[in-house]
Amino acid sequence: MLIDSYERVVDYLRVSVTERCNFRCQYCMPEKPFSWVPKENLLSFEELFLFMKIAIDEGVKKIRITGGEPLLREGLDKFIKMIYDYEPSIDLAMTTNAYLLKGAAQKLKDAGLKRINVSIDTLDPITAHRIAAKDVLKNVLEGVEEARKVGLIVKVNMVPMNNMNANEIVDVLEYCKERNMSIRFIEYMENQFASKDISGLKSDELLERLREHYEFTDDGFDGSSPSHYYTMKDGYRFGIIEPYADDFCKKCNRIRLTAEGNLIPCLYFDEALSIGKAIKAGDINAAAEVLREVVRTKPEKNRWGGEDGESSSRAFYETGG
Questions:
Q1: Which residues of this UniProt protein bind [4Fe-4S] cluster 2 (predicted)?
Q2: DSSP H helical ranges for 59-153
């Protein structure tokens, strides 16, 4: 079992298999980076799997595949199957923009994937093009329907932004509600790679807008989830993630691995240790020791809140933010 210095059990590993993405979302990566990490610098699926086995043996119970856009990496279903075959009880999930999901959903389900998170920031094709710098909405919605059809559990994330999609909060919620998909509204996280024109909605303003249409109760936090949950009179539940607060840090159970092998204790911390050298050498003991050290030094909370709050210099597309 992996336990950090604040007595939190760390059993959730987010694994970025690529930093590449086929969207250029305003709040993440509006411009193409000067250069992508060369493919030869990335850990192979076999090398990533070696670390997955170590993590599972050390106590990890949930693995989420992220990117960039994970479906851009060829053979992803085979990597997922490696993990599933090693430990069928593992909670295997993936975060995707769903653009390529329609043609991949069945293979992913057959490989052992259980759940997906999809960003749907708008239901308007023009707004979607504006956010992602690409005509994406048709593919995304078709991918979501195919995922539901093959039996994958689908959760939706939305980043509400002023002068862009804030007027669609209710529409996107109703879209999810009609399909029995949960939705989480995520406050915009400031980072140096995002467009400078973005102004995100804070949770208080978001709740005020939702109260104009619904009655709901405050459920607080649920386990180690970063979401603050609310339940409507009809039983439908939605969540809000407030990165500038640190309430959810108290029960944080996750660490992150980049495609190059950097193990990160917190999304908003630049500190990391690499398991790359040990994994490429097949040194299981050394890689396990790095894992334990990252867990041991996991910070108490993020750096967003308070007077000393920072704007992240880490590219979220590298870590599945």
A1: 249, 252, 266
A2: 76-86, 105-111, 125-132, 137-150
Measure the CA angle with vertex 293, ends 288 and 298; round to 5°. Answer: 130
Q: Which CATH architecture has domain 12-318?
A: Alpha-Beta Barrel (3.20)
Could you tell me the residue ranges of all domains in the chain? Answer: 12-318
Annotated binding residue 195: no
Give the tokens for residue 56. Answer: 């599972």
Q: Are 58 and 291 in contact (CB under 8 A)?
A: yes
Q: Is residue 189 annotated as involved in ligand binding?
A: yes
**Amino acid 255: pLDDT:** 95
**Known binder of ligand: residue 27?**
yes
Is 188 annotated to bind ligand?
no
What pTM did the predictor assign?
A: 0.90
Are residues 35 and 277 in contact, defined by beta-carbon separation less than 8 angstroms? no
Q: Is 148 annotated as a binding residue?
A: no
Q: Tell me 123's DSSP state.
A: S
Q: What is the pLDDT of residue 306?
A: 45
Q: Which two tokens stand for residue 231?
A: 């339940």
Give the integer Cα–Cα distance in Å for 154 and 179. Answer: 9
Q: Is 119 annotated as a binding residue?
A: yes
176 known member of a binding site = no
